[in-house]
Amino acid sequence: MKVRHWLFTLPLVFLIGCGETDEATSSEATEQTEQTTDEETTSSSEGSESSKGEDTSEGIGGSEEFEVEENELGISQIYMKNRNLGIEEKIGPIIFQIDKVQTLRLQVASDFRFMFDEKKEVTIVSFNVIVENTSDDTVSFHPNQARLVTNTGEQVDADLIISEDVGGEFLGKVKKEGGVLFHVDSMPAELTEVRFVVEGPYNDQFNKIAEERYEYTIDVSK
Known about the structure:
alpha+beta, six-stranded antiparallel beta sheet, four-stranded antiparallel beta sheet
């Protein structure tokens, strides 16, 4: 039951930076940064020397500070986020939106490494999608089985375990919203552009009712 609970909450963990809590989190981070800056300014030169080499964002590989989330899953450093992608397209009877994206570096807790091919660290690219069937007919569409192609040459399938159930059969005028997540080997700072690739919808007779494939190129640079 413990693992099942975390599988359910994972997309919320990875997308928290894209939600309405951003302003509060950013405010807290700013206050902490200002406090840290004041302390560093008043510290002695000897103390400064002793702190050289320490990097709060070592997992990401940069020198700037990042928002850090820690929970039972592990420690995640949020690299970039965009809450206003504004991608929307009518795909047959389906209205498909990708409105948020976030990248982060996750140091995976040992109990959950089985979910990430036993890797100790992974980069997560997460999207919030909204899917609405505007017809009374049954339509099948699977954005949670999309593929991601990165500027670094990786091609990966969406992780069904940690993505939310935003695909499948839409029995009439149904609307679903949730996270579609991918984990990649590249560091977040290496990612500048990704392509979200999803197959078109089909009806209950397994006939395509729109184009075969849809691709969305998304800027994920900081």
